[in-house]
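Two proteins were folded this term; both appear here.
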Amino acid sequence: MLINVPKDLYRSNFPTNSHFFISEEFIEVVKNKTDKVFRFMKDKDKSIGIIFGMKDNILCCPFSAPFGGFHYSHEYLSYNIIYDFIVDLKKYIIDHKLSGAYITLPPDIYQENINAKCINAFIKLGFNISGPDITNWIDLKKFNGIWKNKKVYQNLRKAYRNQLSFSIITEIELMQEAFNLIAHNRIDQGRKIHMTFEEILELKKIIPIDFFLVKDKKGEISGAGVFYQSHKSIVQAIFIADNINRRELRVIDFMYLKVFEHYKNMGFEFIDMGTSSLFGEPNIGLIRFKEIHNCNTSLRYSFFWGPNGEFSYNCCQQENK
């Protein structure tokens, strides 16, 4: 049987997180975006748990992040423990007359073994798959400045001829300018941005967040990036954008190179480059662009289930990067 427990009890059993978006620090920042926070454990087996937010009578994990997932005592948890937990989750939903549950698991670079068991159990227990989304990541251990595709070399030569410059910025005014460029890029492409500059600054009090700028030879801002150092070995690309009217400068190629070099030198092993699909619909050009820049491609799974069949789960979803 699942029980909703207080924060202190939950954290006494799960003091560590597989990623930042299920940490108590992050939950505290975004808890106002949900009706109620639930911290579920089993009454007897304390080896697995999950944090949900309630939206429109639906349990959502995450409720304001790219992905969520389970807490667990170790990654080699028995399959039966995971399966039984999901069985009890379905029973809780029925007993409490909820509309259902929606869960997005993290990409495999965060927890490959747990993901495989969770995906199998969700499917066997009748959960529907949303998407799945295509996600990309770069293995910095293998990155040596040699690109898989010669087009990247051509684009980088153009970037250097255009005298682009790359910098890490710490001044609030410049961070705001970087965010403004990112927001305009989203608007120009008909996409939403689900965070405000102020919300990023709030998160920056908890984890290291890096702002990057790319400028042209006249010193005008042509590109920007925001990255979270939210994991001991994985950096997460939250926003990468350029001025879409000046793409001939090859800003993004230049930024990829500089960012890869920067975090490799810092000792990180991977960069989570985000999804290349929108609610499961692949962005073919973006997938290709990331892959020619040595990125790997894999799947990020979301599952939903309700006792009365399918339900509207859009309230739980956040637009992909």
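Next, the second protein.
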Amino acid sequence: MRKTLDALYTSSAWLAALSMVGVLAMVLLSIVGRLLHFHVPGTDAYAGYAMAGAGFLALAHTLKSNEHIRVTLVIGRLRGAARRALELWSLTVAVLLAGLLAAYAWRLAWQSHQFHDISMGSDATPLWIPQILMGVGTTVLLIALLDEWVLEWRGLRPHPQTGTRHE
């Protein structure tokens, strides 16, 4: 199971990296178009979609790499059961919020599909297509937070600051 979860987080990070390459490609295409006096419609919109996709798809891998910013003013001073209780409470709240975010992201994509919502730009992209990246990213983040919650509950989660586990 651990290999499968780690592969999911890594795959999501690779998709985020590909999205960043998409941003680069759209920006370069726009620059070259200006220099050579041609216009490709939608490059700004597609760069934006790719940037949003990169941000959402990178969330889970960033969490699992302990790269999210944590405010440790209180939790850094706690030890033992008090620290574990606060970690579990924080992760529980994070799981609930990520679950809501994922549900609403998928709901938004579904509603955009149902209403045939398209972008306002000249490209007229169906908005549910780029919104799927937000749904996927938030769902993988939810899975990563659940993974962290289970590891914390079992006492196997390393502390991001010290690298030690609860015993």
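Residues 30 and 75 are 47 Å apart (CA to CA). Helices lie at 2-35, 43-57, 59-64, 80-114, 128-154. These notes refer to the second protein only.
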